[in-house]
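Repro:
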Amino acid sequence: MWLLVMFDLPVGTKAERRAATKFRQWLMDAGYEMSQFSIYMRFSVGKEQTDRRIRDIAKARPDKGSVHVLTVTDRQFEHMTVFRGKKRGHGRPVPSQLELF
């Protein structure tokens, strides 16, 4: 499965900007990659791992703003169409089961 984390966080004050930056940095440190500025994604092996990652996101999210987590299957993710400039592509391939850090 793939986890897509989408968020809209306030950045009106210095404290809000700091909280938004801290959350984005936490996502990157946790292995999520940026798809768009406020959309991050990560591959997850199973339901237990997905549930754990969602709990971690709930703990790390800022107090203000909204954070949405969408889970999609590999098959659904493969059918995603991506436009980068004038070129048309497809979703990213599923990573191998073994990931070394």
